[in-house]
Design brief:
Layout: E1 12-23, E2 29-43, H1 47-55, E3 60-67, E4 76-79, E5 82-91, E6 96-103
Antiparallel strand pairs: 1-2, 1-4, 2-3, 3-6, 4-5, 5-6
Length: about 110
């Protein structure tokens, strides 16, 4: 369900993904992925955002809104079975943060 920018309803769920790299006992780097599920809302992408993102080399796919207290600048988001990169976020005055996402391709 897509929300209205002024009437946010956090009815959807997305996963904030954190990837950390450590060394194993042999000194080889290993990665671990941590996911935190939070509630979100999907907003329509404005034409202004679409063209601004395109000029910066991104193809905007989604605009998700999350509670600002739950977002700690993660750069990967899982939503509706796909993985997205957060290329820009905007902390609003009303306690929400808008996440502008482009689709991840490959292993990321």
């Amino acid at each position: 369900m897509i929300s209205n920018k002024n009437d946010i309803s956090l009815d959807n769920v997305c996963s904030l993904v954190t990837i950390s790299t450590t060394e194993n006992e042999y000194g080889e780097p290993t990665t671990a992925e941590t996911k935190a599920d939070i509630f979100c809302a999907e907003l329509p992408v404005t034409s202004n955002e679409f063209f601004s993102a395109q000029q910066s080399g991104f193809k905007v796919q989604k605009c998700l809104v999350v509670n600002s207290d739950e977002y700690t600048e993660e750069r990967l988001i899982g939503y509706e079975g796909k993985r997205y990169s957060v290329y820009r976020y905007y902390q609003r005055a009303d306690g929400y943060t808008e996440l502008y996402c482009s689709e991840r391709v490959g292993n990321g």
